[in-house]
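2 proteins. here.
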Amino acid sequence: MNSFRLQSNPTSTFAYSQLNKTQALLNKNIQRLSSGLRINSAADDTAGSAMATRMTNQIRGMHQANRNSRDANNLLATAESGLNNISDLLAQMRELSVQAATDTLNDTDRASIDLEFQSLKNELTRIASVTEHNGMNLLNGTYQTGTGEAAPVSLANSQNSLAAEAYNQDQPGIVPGNATPADDQRGHWRIQIGADNDVDSQHEFSIMNATDVGLDIKDNDVLTVDKARTTVTALDGAIDEVNRERSYIGSEQNKLQFTMSNLSNTINSIETARSNIEDVDYALEMSELAKNQILVQSGTAMLAQANMVSQNILQLLSN
């Protein structure tokens, strides 16, 4: 048998509690649909939020690694362009040397040829010295090591895109990393190509010293037949060295292209996984929204109906 109570209205209390719960669910539906995210705070899904955050950090690191690889590829392209010009100059210098190596010319003729030869050699060194990327000299081998001395390193100021090897004053005479002896005169770069700080996330390469000193032709001239013939041999070695360097640079560029492609594919995969974790399912959420809207409307009506109990008691007493 139904009864009326003046001190409490459990039906109204229950209806009010259910209405609050449904309204909270409806608010959550609206929040998710407006943001496009299933997880808008850690409270929505603690584990999912942590996973999504880790993935976001990994994606951002990989995007930067991709930019690093692209910067390194541009650096190598600049170096290869400079070597291409140097290769052309070496070919012209060899042609002059062959011309001077014949006995049909006199010393005056060779002196004239040598003037042009030396001019080309100076231009070669100039190109090697001015070939730069982001303020870094690429082809002149300017770094050196020395015990207790500051080592001028032309690979600095890379603005976090390229990490360059540098002199370590705590270990005099040592260039950290895989640096080679000073007589090799190669510039060394270490590129961050991954999101983590480990060996697999780094890529190293080096570039030759393409000045007349680096190519071992600084003291060559064509003033005599013997010197001209010696110079031809020296230039053949220099040309072979430059050709090998260009092939090496091309292989490094191919490696970086593969790295960039792999990074892009990995980023896409992780972004898809993150989307599955934190993005809202619009079809499901719209269905839940419609259901909760109906429940809020019916709950409001039922709360009003439950509150009518007090009015019924007053009406009964007035009768």
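next one coming up
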Amino acid sequence: MFEVLIWILICFFLPVTILFFCCACCAGQRYQVPVIYYTNLIISILIYHCMTFFWWEILHGIVERFFYYFAVTASLYFKSCIALERYCFIACPLLDCLRQTKGSVLVCVLVWVLCIVSVGLAVFLYEFVRLIIYAALPAPLFIFCLAGTLKALPAATSVPTEEKRRIVGTLVLLLLNYFLINLPAVILLTLNLYPRFPETLVDFIIIILSLFSSLLDFILFAFMRKGPIDRLLARLCCCSMESNNTGDVTDVSTDRSDHVVRDEGKEETGSHDGRDGEEVESVR
């Protein structure tokens, strides 16, 4: 079963990754997506898909282990760059250095160099706990970008509504992919380097997580460009607005009914007071 998963990853996801790489290069300028960050992300995905074919050498060989961790760490950091660029597009539109060609190329070069140096030191010095720390560094950035984007959405009047939906969907997808798939996979792979853990079960889980991560990376491209995803996001927003409006209507109706009951109670008390007054006068 484990070998079947590896062949699925190599024979299916590797060609699809190359196809998405070509699509990202062709559609980047047309749909105004951060194409440079996404193409570098696809390159890192291609590297660790190719290294998955040498899975047993990753667990026992230094060079193979370095390339695999190098690709995984680079993919995490390029996803962080995409999240930061999407946040700046909403919250800081004047700060467009991350969207310009020179600035984005410089950021990508710095990411590659940082990954080579940091992962190289961790692998060749056998300090594998560093790899978990490197993988955990983007966590505050993903949370900050999503929270800051949601806070800055009402003030971004110049950004179209469809673009806002795509940006929020991209950040949510990146956050879920990171916390549910990428970070657990890195932690399990690092712990798998120690002989205490059952290798077969952990290897199986890591490959499954890699499959889901690759699938979400492909979906990420759909969230970053105009297309059928806009209709899906619009329907989701309409459903949420309808549920909110239904809740508001029920609240208003309950408030009105309370007011009606109170007014009727006041009228009844007033009528009773009038009758009591008439009876007192008749007695006098």
